[in-house]
C-alpha cells in the first residue's frame, strides 16, 4: 500500500503516469489501493457489459472494493467521456478487458495518475476467458473457444515496458519501476513552443490567402484542442469578429472553449487597459466585447453547417477524424478558411480515415493546404511510462515494413511473391512480423483499431494470408488478407451473433436454407503503398480462393464501404454485388456493399437467385432509399446485372426524344428501361454526364432539382444535356449493340 502511495508522489514530481498490475486475490488488491486516492479525485472503475439472466447490465464494483469511492463506467460508453481528465482508472480483467478501452482510458489520466489492472496470477491470467472476446465470436462459438493470444501478447509486451507489476506473496517492490531523471517539465503557461507554431499557422489561415486550410495532427495529450481555443481568442483580438468551432459532438470542443475563457481572464488580469468584457460563457458559446466590438466563438454542428454555410471569419474543426470524409469535403467546399484538428493515433476507430481519404480530397480541391504536428505533451512530461506501455502493447506505434524503393519492381508476378498462411502463434512469437502485419492493416483501412488486434489474435475462426517479397535477403510482408468463417447455420434458429453476410442476405433476398452454406468473409485486404497497382490484391484473392476451395467453402464474400476505386477491383475478380446498405457508414460516409463469389454449384444457384432479386430491387432503392449513392457507383453496379434479353428497339425511343417527336414524359419509362440495359454505354460518358443522366432518368429527380445540382439553366438546360449524350450513343447502337467509343458490353459472371 505505501509503495503505491510513494509511487504517486514521485509521479506527481516527475509529471508522469504509470501502469500498475496487481496480480492476486481481491482482498489483497483492495488493500493495495486503500488510501491511494483522495475523496476529491475522480477514479473510473471500467467494466464490460455482461449478460445476466438474458438482461445486459454493467458489471458492478465487487463488494470488497465498495468502500472506495470509484465511479463505475461501462467500457462501451468511454468515448462519451473523451476530453475529461481523471486521476486514475481501475480495470478488473476478470470482468473483461478490451484493447480500445486501454487506449481510450489511458489518454484520460492526468500526470501523477495510475492505470491499475487487477489480475489473477500471471499463469492463471494467461488462460483466463476474457468476456470482451464475446463481441467477435460467431454463433455457436463461446468464450471457451476464443484464444488467449492477446492476453499473452500484453504480458510479453509489458514485461519489456517500464511498469509496476506487483504479485501477491511475491517479494517485489514498486522500486523496480524506473523513474525519470528528466525534470525539465514545468507547468508553463500555455501556449507551448509547439502550440506557438500552431497559433502562427492558424493566424495565417485567418488573415492570409483563402483556400489554404491547415491540418493540425497530434497524439493525445498534446494540446491541439486547447490550441484552437487560444488561437480563436488571438484572431478575434487581431480583428476577426466571429469564429465557429465544430465537431461531431459539442462535448468534444469542451477543452477549446475552456482555454479560450482562461486566456481572456488571464489577459484581463495582466492588462486592465485591454478592457475585455465577458458577455456570455455557456457550453458552445463565448461572447465578449473588445474595443466596443462584439466578438464571438460559437459551436455549430457540422450537419447544420452543410445546410446553412456560416459567414464566420474562420471555421475550426476539432476531432476531424470523427467526421465522415464526404462531410469534411462538403465543409471544405463551402468554407474558405478552415483548420482541421485531429488525433493521429486511431484507437477510437476512425482516426486513419482522415489520413487515408480526406487528405486526397485536400490535394484535389485545395492543393496549397498546410500541416502542423504537435509533439510536446502538455498534460504529462515527455517519455511518459504509461503512454509508452500502452503504445507498445497496442502497436499504436507500429509501421509497415520499410521498403527500399530503388529495388521495387515495375511489375509483379506471382513468381515474385511468396504466399503464406500465418498461424496466430507465429505472430505471438514474432513481434516484428506482428508489427509489420498490423501496421500494414492500419495504413490500408480507415477503421482499423486496437480491438482489431485483439480479434486478430483471439478469434478462433479467422484466417490470415500474407504476400511476401524478398529484398536484400530479407522477407517483407507487402500484402495481407484476413478472412472470417461465417454460415453453416440452421435456417430455423433465432438470430445468431455475427455471420454478417449470410444473415444480411437472407433477411433481404435469400431463401432460409441459404444460411446452411458456408462462406469466408474477407474482412481486410491490404497492400503496401509502394507495391499497389501491381495486381497483388488480385493474387491474394486467388490464393484465398484456393484455400477456401480446399476447405470446401461454398462462397467468398465481403462487406465494405463502396467507393469508385474499390468497386472495379471486386467486380473484375468476378464478385457479384448483392446488397447496398441504405444507411451511410458513420466513419466513411459511404454505403456498405455486400459482394460474393460462388465456389460450389449449390452456392452459384443460391447467389444467382439473390442477384436476381437484388437486380429487381436496386432501381427502386435509388428512388426510395439511396438518393446520395454516387452516380459512378450506380452505373458500376448496374453494369454487372444480367438481362435475359436486350431490346434493341429501345434505341428508337431515344431517337424520338432526341428529334423532339416525343416529349420526355411520354417515354420516360422506356428511357429508364434502356438505361438499365445500357450501363456499359453510359459509363463511357464524363462523370458529370453520368450524374445528370442518373439523377434525372434513374432517380427521377425534378427538372428544377437536377438543374440546380448541375448548374444548368432549368429544364431546357437538362434536356439539352440529355439529348447531347443521346447524340453520341444512339447512331452507333442502331446497327451494333456495342459502343466501341464509350465502353464494352456487360460481362456475364
What distinguishing features does this structure have?
23 strands; alpha/beta; Rossmann fold; Aminopeptidase; 7-stranded mixed beta sheet; 749 residues; 4 domains
Per-chain topology:
Elements: H1 2-14, E1 18-23, H2 26-33, E2 43-47, E3 49-52, E4 55-58, E5 71-74, E6 86-92, H3 99-106, E7 109-119, H4 122-126, H5 149-159, E8 164-167, H6 193-207, E9 214-218, H7 224-237, E10 242-246, H8 254-270, E11 277-282, E12 285-290, E13 293-299, H9 302-307, E14 314-317, H10 325-334, E15 338-343, H11 351-365, E16 370-374, H12 385-394, E17 418-422, H13 424-429, H14 431-444, H15 450-458, E18 462-471, E19 474-487, H16 500-508, E20 518-527, H17 536-550, E21 555-561, H18 566-572, E22 576-584, E23 591-598, H19 601-624, H20 631-638, H21 650-658, H22 664-677, H23 679-682, H24 687-698, H25 703-709, H26 714-733
Parallel strand pairs: 1-7, 1-8, 2-5, 2-6, 6-7, 9-15, 9-16, 10-13, 10-14, 14-15, 20-21
Antiparallel strand pairs: 3-4, 11-12, 12-13, 17-18, 18-19, 19-20, 21-23, 22-23
Helix pairs in contact: 3-12, 5-12, 6-7, 7-8, 10-11, 20-24, 21-22, 21-26, 25-26
Count up the domains.
Answer: 4
CATH architecture label of the largest domain: 3-Layer(aba) Sandwich
Indicate the multimeric state: single chain
**Terminal Cα separation, in Å?**
69 Å
Q: Work out the number of β strands.
A: 23
* Sequence of strands across the biggest β-sheet: 11-12-13-10-14-15-9-16
**If you compute it from the alpha carbons, what radius of gyration comes out, rounded to the nearest whole angstrom?**
29 Å
**CATH superfamily descriptor of the largest domain:** Gcn5-related N-acetyltransferase (GNAT)
Model regions low in confidence, pLDDT < 50 over at least 5 residues? 50-55, 346-351, 733-749
Sheet-strand content, in percent, reads 15-25%
Number of H- or I-type helical stretches:
26
**Structure class:** alpha/beta
Protein name: tRNA(Met) cytidine acetyltransferase TmcA
Catalytic activity: cytidine(34) in elongator tRNA(Met) + acetyl-CoA + ATP + H2O = N(4)-acetylcytidine(34) in elongator tRNA(Met) + ADP + phosphate + CoA + H(+)
Pfam families: GNAT_acetyltr_2 (PF13718), NAT10_TcmA_helicase (PF05127), TmcA_N (PF08351)
EC number: 2.3.1.193
Amino acid at each position: 500500500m505505501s509503495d503505491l502511495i510513494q509511487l504517486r508522489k514521485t509521479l506527481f514530481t516527475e509529471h508522469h503516469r504509470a501502469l500498475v498490475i496487481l496480480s492476486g486475490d481481491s482482498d489483497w488488491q483492495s488493500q493495495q489501493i486503500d488510501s491511494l486516492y483522495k475523496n476529491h479525485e475522480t477514479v473510473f472503475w471500467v467494466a464490460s457489459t455482461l449478460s445476466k439472466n438474458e438482461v445486459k447490465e454493467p458489471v458492478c464494483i465487487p463488494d470488497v472494493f465498495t468502500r472506495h469511492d470509484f465511479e463505475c463506467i461501462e467500457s462501451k460508453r468511454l468515448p462519451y467521456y473523451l476530453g475529461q481528465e481523471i486521476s486514475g482508472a481501475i480495470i478488473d480483467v476478470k470482468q473483461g478487458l478490451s484493447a480500445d478501452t486501454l487506449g481510450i482510458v489511458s489518454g484520460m489520466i492526468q500526470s501523477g495518475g495510475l492505470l491499475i489492472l487487477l489480475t489473477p496470477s500471471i499463469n492463471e491470467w494467461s488462460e483466463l476467458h476474457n468476456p470482451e472476446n464475446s463481441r467477435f465470436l460467431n454463433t455457436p462459438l463461446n468464450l471457451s473457444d476464443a484464444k488467449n493470444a492477446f492476453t499473452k501478447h500484453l504480458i510479453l509486451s509489458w514485461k519489456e515496458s517500464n511498469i509496476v507489476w506487483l504479485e501477491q506473496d511475491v517479494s517485489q517492490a514498486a522500486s523496480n519501476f524506473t523513474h525519470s531523471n528528466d525534470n525539465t517539465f514545468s507547468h508553463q503557461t500555455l501556449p507551448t513552443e509547439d502550440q506557438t507554431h500552431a497559433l502562427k499557422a492558424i493566424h495565417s489561415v485567418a488573415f492570409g490567402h483563402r483556400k489554404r486550410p491547415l491540418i493540425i495532427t497530434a497524439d493525445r495529450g498534446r494540446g491541439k484542442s486547447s490550441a484552437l481555443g487560444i488561437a480563436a481568442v488571438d484572431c478575434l483580438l487581431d480583428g476577426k469578429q466571429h469564429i465557429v468551432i465544430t465537431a461531431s459532438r459539442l462535448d468534444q470542443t469542451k477543452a477549446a472553449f475552456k482555454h479560450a475563457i482562461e486566456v481572456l481572464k488571464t489577459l484581463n488580469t495582466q492588462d486592465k487597459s485591454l478592457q475585455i468584457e465577458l458577455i456570455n460563457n455557456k457550453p458552445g458559446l463565448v461572447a465578449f466585447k473588445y474595443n466596443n466590438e462584439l466578438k464571438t466563438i460559437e459551436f455549430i454542428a457540422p450537419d447544420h453547417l452543410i445546410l446553412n454555410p456560416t459567414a464566420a471569419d474562420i471555421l475550426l474543426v476539432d476531432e476531424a477524424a470523427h467526421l465522415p470524409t464526404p462531410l469534411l469535403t462538403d465543409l471544405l467546399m463551402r468554407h474558405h478558411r478552415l483548420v482541421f484538428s485531429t488525433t493521429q493515433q486511431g484507437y477510437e476507430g476512425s482516426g486513419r480515415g482522415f489520413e487515408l481519404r480526406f487528405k486526397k480530397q485536400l490535394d484535389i480541391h485545395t492543393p496549397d493546404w498546410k500541416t502542423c504536428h504537435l509533439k510536446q505533451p502538455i498534460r504529462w512530461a515527455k517519455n511518459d511510462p504509461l503512454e509508452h506501455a500502452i503504445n507498445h502493447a497496442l502497436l499504436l506505434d507500429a509501421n509497415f515494413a520499410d521498403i527500399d524503393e530503388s529495388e521495387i519492381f515495375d511489375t509483379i508476378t506471382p513468381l515474385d511473391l511468396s504466399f503464406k498462411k500465418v498461424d496466430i502463434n507465429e505472430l505471438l512469437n514474432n513481434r516484428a512480423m506482428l508489427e509489420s502485419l498490423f501496421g500494414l492493416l492500419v495504413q490500408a483501412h480507415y477503421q482499423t483499431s486496437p480491438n482489431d488486434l485483439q480479434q486478430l489474435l483471439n478469434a478462433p475462426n479467422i484466417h490470415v494470408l500474407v504476400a511476401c517479397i524478398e529484398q536484400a535477403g530479407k522477407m517483407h510482408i507487402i500484402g495481407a488478407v484476413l478472412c472470417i468463417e461465417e454460415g453453416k447455420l440452421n435456417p430455423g434458429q433465432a438470430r445468431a451473433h455475427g455471420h454478417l453476410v449470410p444473415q444480411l442476405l437472407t433477411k433481404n433476398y435469400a431463401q432460409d436454407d441459404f444460411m446452411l452454406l458456408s462462406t469466408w468473409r474477407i474482412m481486410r485486404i491490404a497492400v503496401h503503398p509502394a507495391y499497389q497497382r501491381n495486381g497483388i490484391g488480385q493474387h491474394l484473392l486467388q490464393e484465398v480462393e484456393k484455400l477456401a476451395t480446399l476447405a470446401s467453402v461454398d462462397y467468398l464474400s465481403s462487406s465494405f464501404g463502396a467507393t469508385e476505386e474499390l468497386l472495379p477491383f471486386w467486380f473484375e475478380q468476378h464478385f457479384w454485388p448483392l446488397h447496398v446498405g441504405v444507411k451511410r457508414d458513420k466513419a466513411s460516409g459511404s454505403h456498405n456493399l455486400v459482394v460474393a463469389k460462388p465456389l460450389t454449384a449449390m452456392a452459384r444457384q443460391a447467389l444467382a437467385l439473390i442477384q436476381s432479386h437484388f437486380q429487381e430491387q436496386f432501381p427502386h432503392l435509388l428512388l426510395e432509399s439511396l438518393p446520395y449513392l454516387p452516380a459512378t457507383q450506380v452505373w458500376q453496379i448496374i453494369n454487372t446485372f444480367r438481362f435475359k434479353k436486350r431490346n434493341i428497339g429501345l434505341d428508337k425511343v431515344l431517337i424520338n426524344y432526341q428529334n423532339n417527336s416525343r416529349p420526355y414524359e411520354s417515354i420516360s419509362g422506356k428511357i429508364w428501361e434502356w438505361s438499365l440495359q445500357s450501363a456499359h454505354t453510359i459509363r463511357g460518358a464524363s462523370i458529370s454526364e453520368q450524374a445528370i443522366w442518373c439523377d434525372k432518368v434513374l432517380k427521377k429527380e425534378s427538372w428544377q432539382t437536377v438543374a440546380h445540382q448541375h448548374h444548368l439553366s432549368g429544364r431546357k438546360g437538362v434536356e439539352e444535356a440529355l439529348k447531347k449524350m443521346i447524340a453520341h450513343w444512339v447512331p452507333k447502337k442502331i446497327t451494333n449493340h456495342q459502343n466501341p467509343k464509350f465502353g464494352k458490353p456487360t460481362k456475364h459472371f
